[in-house]
Amino acid sequence: MNAADVNWVSDNSDTAAKDGPKVAFLWGGTEAGQLNGSYIKLPAHFSGSIHSRGTQFGAVVIKGQLTHAATDEPLAPGSYFSSKEATLHQVQTNESEVVLYVRANGKYDIAVE
């Protein structure tokens, strides 16, 4: 798939505004137990959480810088965070948007603080 053909949609959080978090589903299914891959786009100055609900969750920073509460240090492109159970990942972005590649087993939700 060409990057220009990625279909970004508003996530299922209570901030479905045009400048809120976006998700692009790439492959697989989001049902419980289904392995899937997607992109998450977080706007500049985002503060909130990504709640993984499955048994595996991994996110790689593709673009921008993200701070994960577990380390409280900026994660540059190529950095990642993960979990092997349902986990609430508290994250923040700085002045620029962040794009993550996510590989998950099941669903995840994005919430704005």
UniProtKB/TrEMBL annotation:
It comes from the Bacteria. It holds the Pfam family DUF4437. InterPro entries: DUF4437 (IPR028013), RmlC-like_jellyroll (IPR014710), RmlC_Cupin_sf (IPR011051). This is DUF4437 domain-containing protein. It comes from Coraliomargarita algicola.
